Amino acid sequence: MAAAAKDLAASYIDSEREKLKDLSLALWNNPEVGFEEHKAHQTVTDFFEERGFTVQREYRLPTAFRAEFTNGAGPNICIICEYDALPEIGHACGHNLICEAGVAASIAVKAALAANLITGKLTVLGTPAEEGGGGKIDLINAGAFDDIDCAMMVHPFGGNFIYISWLAIQRLTVTYRGKSAHAAAAPWDGRNALDAAVACYNNMSLLRQQMKPTCRIHAIISKGGVKPNIIPDETKLEIYIRAPNQTELILLQQRVEHCIVGAGKATGCETDYSYDPKGYASVNHNRTMGGLYQKYAEEQGINFIEPLEKLPGGSTDMGNVSQVVPSIHPTFYIGIDAQIHTVAFRDHAAGDEAQTYTIKAAKSMAFSTIDLLSQPQLMAAVKEEFTRSTQVVPVE
Length: 396
What we know:
Blueprint (H helix, E strand, L loop, with lengths): L1 H14 L1 H12 L9 H13 L3 E4 L7 E7 L4 E6 L13 H20 L5 E7 L8 H7 L8 E3 L2 E3 L10 E10 L15 H15 L8 E8 L10 E10 L2 H22 L2 E6 L11 H13 L18 H5 L4 E2 L2 E3 L9 H6 L3 H23 L1 H14 L7
Parallel strand pairs: 3-4, 3-5, 5-11, 6-12
Antiparallel strand pairs: 1-2, 2-4, 7-9, 7-10, 8-9
């Protein structure tokens, strides 16, 4: 029955390819940033409703959704769709393709369930604001994953990876307050908040020398002053701290805090810093699920990059999902060597070559889901691995 289910799933995706492409382009042509994905929400939920899913619009969040289809008893597998874009450069992270792949896999699995070739439940979650807004964290806290047995999604990238290191991240804002003065007439009356910001930046640059190669710090001075002849009395930095797991992240945060506080003391400025309440956890890859996905992708001619898999990628709120349910987050090459968050990647994400790879990724997810629904021993193995590997990571 599973073989017949996969045949039906593949043929169903093929029959819907043009409409799936239209859906992807509708998102690409109307990029919306996090928590403002109203057109995308409407477009995708309409697509699911037209194909027989039970759809909850505005599920827990104004631009989130939940689409379900059930046939008898069995596990509840979740396929995740993202659809937010980046400011100014649109879908340069390829979330239109993430959504298309998730939709394609979902309608394929639903076809197999409706034909009674497999039993169980499919849940599709539309998760807004991955680009810094942490929509999945909000959904976790609202109980959206409480009845989910495992979850999956895919991401377009510069290469094919199963277990790339998606890093935990903590974002913070630093504010230095000094005293303004005329920079030529009476500089001694001032306390230069820009000096504090520059010292903080330089302190972190020195820290990088003693950091592990798997950790990252990035920072910008977002407020540096008004005019050169006025000593700045207030400056701000935005800092991202990343590490492979929560334990290393906490240790690195402590060292960054020393850089922040030391710069304030050295320049005589007041120092305030605050963390984003929605930090992203690292992705806890479920290798049982990942092995299924890899098997079906390789059967379609996809080659995975093994030697580089321990190098860091970026960060994602899918990491938080992976700490509460077994999950995978593979990446797929779309035919261009450019990296995500570039204009070149954005433009390629609208092209025909990207479509070919997106459909293969969708079929790999669909076939993996069919196996998980039809083979209880696989789901048992997934859960056993998850129990062994899970870190306790707060989602707030």
